[in-house]
Design brief:
The protein is an alpha/beta fold. The strands form four sheets. Strands 11-12-13-14-15-16-17 form a seven-stranded parallel beta sheet. The chain has four domains: 84 residues, DNA polymerase, domain 1 (Orthogonal Bundle), CATH 1.10.150.110; 92 residues, 2-Layer Sandwich (Beta Polymerase, domain 2); 74 residues, Beta Polymerase, domain 3, CATH 3.30.210; 236 residues, TIM Barrel. Helix 22 crosses helix 23. It is built from 24 helices and 17 strands. It is globular and about 75 Å long. Strand 15, helix 21 and strand 16 form a beta-alpha-beta unit. The longest helix is centred in the N-terminal third of the chain and has 18 residues. The structure holds zinc ion (ZN) (2 copies). One zinc ion binds next to loops.
């Protein structure tokens, strides 16, 4: 947990130095240090205790001192000194997409705007367009960004919610006298955003469980501490998430888990089915008159209604109940089906770790192969590679494949789709890669016809194998582009191009509904993390969760295939 806090402090120092117009070299070194802290897999507190802070790559003595200061004193003096120079609210404005430190400086020093609300009013009353560098378009963009920010503030990314749930469940398993414990709700259904976290537990000693739950580290406020239901606000990043804990009678465990997992429509549908059979279904069980006939397990609830157990990711009342009743539920793809992935960055472009580290992390996950897809030359913000530089990696990749027996690293590229639909590398370059991912990273505001034509042209390129993050949305930051997804699916299906579920936490693009439509149109789906550091490869679980929400089987998922079959597809 401290790793992330230190990363945030370093980032904030960089932002403040930037707003103050300080030396760019120092700003860059703080930003780099922040990325290192985020990617660090060891607990920084352990490193400080063992005197090994110097072993963190890119952290010199001055930064190392600040890390030690934070771990021992809980704050960094330099950070606090800088903060004192800013009215509260100025730094908040950085959270508005499109507003960087340079713009904050102008807004604050020239217009006296020092918080998001004032910024919104200024944009609405057209005060911004009077300043150099701001126009009518900027005002519109700022207003939409503030709207997105407000929407995003009421939800958490699935990965964030899961990280919290993992900590809370782990804590309760270790510290509280519980028999069973699980998180339910949209988190269990793997929805891409989560509002709050529902935890269920069974125990003989409810008071002790409530005591442990309400005194966990990270609890900011206890809203309720009852033996049936307790509610706390839990610190996450610089916000807090509500966590509800319900203590369940063992005989009602399955019914409660089913009920709290939802979604609402799925539950209403089940209740209606129960009523038709003269039964009553609620969170305590299934009852005939006043006698409980099921409820101890979820399976018992479903089977009493004549259904097999339905995977939580499918429970949206989108036809899954009808399908289950006919015995037609698909065998959904699982984490353990994954043989590798394709969308992975290294420090050759904007990733953090060298290819060797990414390869070894993938091997440790039990993968058979990994595709490395660093950025192409036009992605200047991501340090995109020239064609020569990209292809020059071939020798090292061959060596890696000789060194790591039984594992294959494929040389790929995440190649930009340029404005008119042409690819950033020429065909004679593209054909040298083992695989090619095409992606939009610019001109997000094209009208729908032009954007669709642009992406379809890329899909039709014979060397393009996978279309990355098709809508380019970023949750809480950027709306999806205007694009005809059905046309993309059709183009992908007819050219044998895979379409991606990008599981990077704020992307989740395609989402479950879209990926299901893609499958129905005949597409093969590639499930990738878009990793920029070794720790990111673990996000594959959210991609697989999304694939399950799309009802995908392992036959539908390109990287759930063994290498041989993948090679045939890429050819
Ligand atoms: Zn990308
Ligand atoms: Zn990428």
């Amino acid at each position: 947990m401290k790793n992330q806090e230190i990363a945030e402090i370093f980032n904030e120092i960089a932002d403040m130095l930037d707003i103050l117009g300080e030396d760019s070299f120092r700003i860059i070194s703080y930003r780099r240090a922040a990325r290192q802290m985020e990617a660090l897999t060891e607990d920084v507190e352990d490193l400080v205790r063992q005197g090994r802070v110097g072993s963190i790559p890119g952290i010199g003595a001055a930064l190392g001192d600040k890390i030690e200061e934070y771990v021992t004193a809980g704050k960094v003096g330099y950070h606090q000194e800088l903060r004192a120079k800013f009215p509260p609210g100025v730094l908040d404005m950085l959270r508005v997409r499109g507003i960087g430190p340079k713009k904050v400086k102008v807004l604050w020093q020239e217009l006296g705007i020092s918080d998001i609300e004032t910024l919104r009013t200024a944009a609405q009353t057209h005060r911004l367009r009077r300043v150099k560098g701001f126009g009518e378009k900027t005002e519109e963009k700022i207003l939409r960004s503030i709207e997105l920010l407000k929407e995003g503030e009421s939800v958490f990314l699935l990965a964030t919610a899961h990280a919290v749930a993992d900590v809370v469940l782990g804590y309760l398993r270790e510290r509280a006298p519980i028999h069973q414990v699980a998180a339910a709700g949209s988190l269990r259904r793997m929805k891409e955003t989560v509002r709050d976290i529902d935890v269920l537990a069974t125990t003989d000693k409810p008071a002790a469980v409530v005591e442990a739950f309400t005194h966990m580290p990270g609890v900011r406020e206890v809203i309720a501490a009852g033996e049936r239901k307790s509610v706390v606000l839990f610190d996450v990043e610089d916000r807090f998430v509500q966590i509800d804990l319900r203590i369940i009678e063992p005989g009602s465990w399955g019914a409660a888990l089913q009920y709290d997992t939802g979604n609402k429509d799925h539950n209403i549908h089940l209740r209606t089915m129960a009523e038709k059979r003269g039964l009553k279904l609620n969170e305590y069980g299934i009852f005939r008159d006043d006698t409980k006939v099921a409820g101890e397990t979820e399976e018992s609830v479903y089977s009493t209604l004549g259904l097999p157990w339905i995977p939580p990711e499918m429970r949206e009342d989108q036809g899954e109940i009808e399908l289950a009743a006919k015995g037609g539920l698909p065998t959904l793809v699982e984490d353990r089906d994954m043989h590798g992935e394709f969308h992975v960055h290294t420090n050759a472009t904007d990733g953090l770790d060298p290819v060797e580290t990414m390869v070894d992390t993938a091997r440790a996950r039990g993968y058979e192969y990994i595709g490395i897809s660093d950025h192409s030359v036009s992605s200047t913000v991501a340090f995109g590679l020239t064609a020569d530089a990209a292809l020059a990696r071939r020798d090292r990749f061959r060596e890696l494949n000789r060194e790591r027996k039984g594992f294959t690293v494929l040389l790929g590229t995440e190649c930009d789709i340029l404005d008119g639909g042409e690819m950033d590398y020429k065909d004679e370059v593209l054909k040298e890669f083992d695989f090619v991912i095409a992606a939009v990273h610019s001109r997000f505001t094209l009208p729908i016809r032009e954007m669709t034509a642009r992406v379809v042209a890329a899909i039709r390129n014979p060397y393009v194998n996978i279309l990355a993050h098709p809508t380019t949305r970023k949750i809480g930051q950027r709306d999806p582009v205007q694009i005809d997804l059905d046309e993309l699916y059709e183009a992908c299906a007819s050219t044998g191009t895979a379409i991606e579920i990008d599981a990077y936490p704020d992307r989740m693009d395609l989402n479950g509904t879209q990926a299901r439509a893609a499958k129905n149109a005949g597409c093969t789906i590639s499930v990738d993390t878009d990793s920029h550091a070794k720790g990111h490869l673990a996000w594959i679980r959210f991609g697989v969760g999304t694939a399950r929400r799309a009802w995908l089987t392992r036959e539908d998922v390109l990287n759930a295939w063994p290498l041989e079959k993948v090679r045939a597809f890429l050819r």
